[in-house]
Amino acid sequence: MNINEETIYKVANLARIEIKEQEVPGLIDEMSKILTFMEQLNALDTTEVEPLVYMNETHNVWREDVAKAELPVEEALKNAAEHNDRFFMVPKIIEK
Length: 96
Prior knowledge:
Layout (H helix, E strand, L loop, with lengths): L4 H11 L8 H19 L30 H5 L19
């Protein structure tokens, strides 16, 4: 693909970025290198390669999420500065 100034300005407009006039020659060279590399990748035969979602095949190893009472309420509240029979009491910090 032929990259010229018009293409650079069009891509910059689509990307909503501002480029300076002196940056254009360097961008033409960089975009040409990128597209040349992409053409090399497109030439590879990938018919035997399975598509990837992630780079490794690690499966979810998390434990099952099961709700259970690990700490009794009385035990959790015993060191609280203020509490009632089931909840921590904290000072009000949001005013209406």
